[in-house]
From TrEMBL:
Keyword annotations of the record: DNA-directed RNA polymerase, Plasmid, Transcription
Official protein name in the record: Putative DNA-directed RNA polymerase specialized sigma subunit domain protein
Entry keyword Transcription: yes
GO cellular component: DNA-directed RNA polymerase complex
Source organism superkingdom: Bacteria
Species: Clostridium botulinum
């Protein structure tokens, strides 16, 4: 069970890293601050 949780967490970390990398590109394109996009992303997860 613990191993499964570890695998899910690892996968989630990879996905969130991938999303952050994508957001950096988007932020550059739209000249928005990375922190603002991170804030939106965090709120999307919570809601």
């Amino acid at each position: 069970m613990l191993y499964l949780v570890y695998q899910i967490k690892k996968k989630y970390n990879y996905i969130s890293y991938y999303i952050r990398e994508k957001y950096k590109d988007i932020a550059k394109e739209f000249k928005v601050s990375y922190q603002y996009i991170q804030y939106l992303y965090n709120n999307a997860i919570e809601n």
